[in-house]
Amino acid sequence: MNLKQIGGAVALAALSTLASSQAFAGAGAVADEFKWMTFAVFGAIIAVTMYITYWAARQTHSTSEFYAAGRSVTGIQNGWAIAGDYLSAASFLGIAGLISLYGYDGFMYSVGWLVAYITVLLVIAEPCRNIGKYTLGDILAFRNDPKASKTVAALSTITVSTFYLTAQMVGGGVLIKTLIGIDYHVSIIGVGVLMLGYVVFGGMKATTWVQIVKAMLLVSASILLVLITWGQHGFSLPGFLQAVVDNPGVQKQVAKLVGDAASSMTPQELGQRFLEPGLFLKNPIDQISLGMALVLGTAGMPHILMRFFTVPTAQDARKSVLWAMGIIGGFYVLTLFLGLGAAMNVGAGPIAALDKGGNMAAPMLAQFAGGGADSVLGNLFLAFVAAVAFATIVAVVAGLVLAAASAMAHDIYVGVIKGDRASPQEQVMAARVSSIIVGIMRSPSVSPPKARTSPTWWPWRSPWRHQATCPPCS
Amino acid sequence: MAQAEMNWAAIDADPRFQALHKKKLTFLWSLMLISTAYYFLLPIGAAYFQDLYKIKVWGPLNVGILFALSEFIVAWIIAGVYAVRANKEFDVMAAEIIRDAHNIK
Questions:
Q1: Are the C-beta atoms of A235 and A86 separated by less than 8 Å?
Q2: What are A54-96's pLDDT values in tens digits?
Q3: A104 to chain B, minimum CA–CA distance in Å?
Q4: Where does A3-240+278-445 sit in CATH, by number?
Q5: A254 touches chain B (CB under 8 A)
Q6: From the centroid of its chain, how far is CA A233?
Q7: What pTM, to 2 d.p., does this model score?
Q8: Are A435 and A402 within 8 A, CB to CB?
Q9: Structural contact between residues B81 and B35, judged by C-beta atoms closer than 8 angstroms
Q10: A258 touches chain B (CB under 8 A)
Q11: Can you give the residue range of the structural domain that contains B81?
Q12: How many Cα atoms are found within 13 Å in the side-chain-facing hemisphere of A168?
């Protein structure tokens, strides 16, 4: 079987997994009569990414092509791809959800996640591009004992990727289950099969282009939603905020959050309180701790570091961060409107009823913006936003698997075991085999979140267990 | 461009390289310091100066939201300042050293 046939088989398997899983479908946010539409939109987006993988696979033969897309990615393309890696489901679903439930404090996440990029720009981007070949280990091995530093770097990369990967895959499973009621395990397998398809056949080139397409879809979906939501208030910022303050649902949510203090507050004061800090992060130290985690965490994420190996020059590395910051920053400003819009139009009650952490706020806002749960357009919007969120998870997981696999194949196998003496064919084969190993290793570790006190994205006990998003994981 | 011809120690000792290195390091650290300090004002303020954040400026738009939005502007400005300086100054200096690298003994 050649690559084309294998790619086709994977695409078919993935599509049929999704299609046949309709049999498993139970209750979800989408009514049964509209489910076919959700599947059609999911199928279309998956088909596009599969085509990208097929196209990339035909051009991926060497190690440099597999790990670094042949260093042929331009600054602007890489900027979009970084934005794609960064704007994962936690940003889109998680932050919009936090803002919809807690107002101002949710927006603090948005700010931290953008500012974190200053560190990436000033400290990481250029040196990575100039020194590194394919992995973090390459950079450390430049001036230290190659075997020791590669081993340590690989362990670090694999550890970070593993934790992050698990959270993302759980998120993907929960998203699909909540929206269309497909069995959790079937969803996880679907994410796994698709992601392995991108990585094993298309390598970095496919992963990069899937990220670019996904980032563009995500940004357009958000802009569309904001236009509809903000447009109701004549694109006036104070007008929009005033509507938030006047909204009875928002006032009720604040009353619930502040408890006894609510009795002495007027409805207007309650509404205004939503735009002030302290509803979610009540302990002052929480605010500062979150700030540190956001700003320092980003610079260590292996799939972001790896992006800088794909561009030809340091100038392109710099340019890509600038583009990424523009896209990411613009997107995060939009989250304020998405979150507050969802708080007003959908309401904290229904959002929390579907998912405690608020992760369904953006898809529910989409359903509202299209005309509500009974309308065709509303469900089409919902399907589109959900499919984009799903593509987001698959693409980010693909980036992480690529990072972990590169650490395993390039650092450990080629660098440490083979002492840097491996033929190019052998290296690419090692990379593909490692990707499959990483992908399969993850599956048993991903069990559905049980009786969650912490929501979707951060399912185990951790310093952030009461927060909806794990701070370093965008 | 055989590496054997390069005298790395001499390049490292070259005053132009030293100047570039020092300039770049000072510049990067000061930008880093400014951006970190400005960023941490936000969570510190949200934690300890909530009354300040509650002051309404334009309708329901308060100091807290304006300050959060200003973080975006400042982040973009810092990124811009860095890019302009790196493109116009550091890259030029580095290119000059690279062009001359074989003759530095």
A1: no
A2: 888 787 777 777 777 777 788 888 889 888 888 877 777 888 8
A3: 8
A4: 1.20.1730.10
A5: no
A6: 30
A7: 0.79
A8: yes
A9: no
A10: no
A11: 3-103
A12: 34
